[in-house]
Amino acid sequence: MNMAVLYQKLDAFNNSITKFDFIGLLALRLYLAPVFWMAGMNKLEDIDSVTAWFGNTEWGLGLPFPELMAWLATLTEIGAAVFLVLGLAVRLVSIPLIITMLVAIFAVHWPNGWQAVADPSSPFASQDIDDVMRRLNFAKDILQEHGNYSWLTSRGNFVISNNGIEWATTYLIMCLILLFQGAGKFVSLDYFLSRYIVAKA
Questions:
Q1: Which residues sit opposite 161 in a β-bridge?
Q2: Cβ atoms of 175 and 98 closer than 8 Å
Q3: Which residue ranges make up each domain of the chain?
Q4: DSSP at 155
């Protein structure tokens, strides 16, 4: 089989599989919806603390207009979750989510490096990873001595959250995909509204 024939077959495969590209976009929407819903609901439950954290310059983010910013972040996350599930105005909804993720990356997580969970074997381990591992091992020693360690670790090992930009960056990339690709066909209100508008034109 020469290269031209191989390329034609690959091209035919690519064209056939695009019929199902809506599955990936649906998966992104359904993955992100509960993430933002929970983030928004957690803020809503204690909006006063969120406002204080947003505004405080010593131990918080030091953002301007903290009450407004807290409510904007909260309502953006809750509203976006609903819109993502419905597949409604997904491109528009992605924009404030992208902004929210950028604020989270640069205002909250950036000083902590890349990793969400501290891992000394990663090439992206933070500079203080040795100190982090000492703290983790110290905590494990306490639990092994005073707790039922096999039960505590029956579903996985203990880890230390590094609170880096990894997860926020992942959500940002997912939102960028939805911004440029939209909600997808067949299982979104955007798709049916678009068809309705075209039919009425």
A1: 117
A2: yes
A3: 21-112+164-201, 117-162
A4: T
Which amino acid is located at 154 in the chain?
S
Q: Give me 41's structure tokens.
A: 């609901």
Place of tokens 């992208």: 98
pTM of the complete model: 0.89
Report the candidate in 152, 125, 128 with the shortest Cα–Cα distance to residue 141. 152
Kindly list the distances between the CA atom of residue 70 and the CA atoms of 36, 40, 95, 112, 161, in Å, as whole numbers in the listed order: 14, 10, 17, 22, 24
Q: What is the pLDDT of residues 75-122, one digit of tens each?
A: 999 999 999 999 999 999 999 999 999 999 999 999 999 999 999 888
21-45 vs 90-103: helix crossing angle, rounded to 10:
50
Hey, how many other C-beta atoms are within 10 angstroms of the C-beta on 61?
15
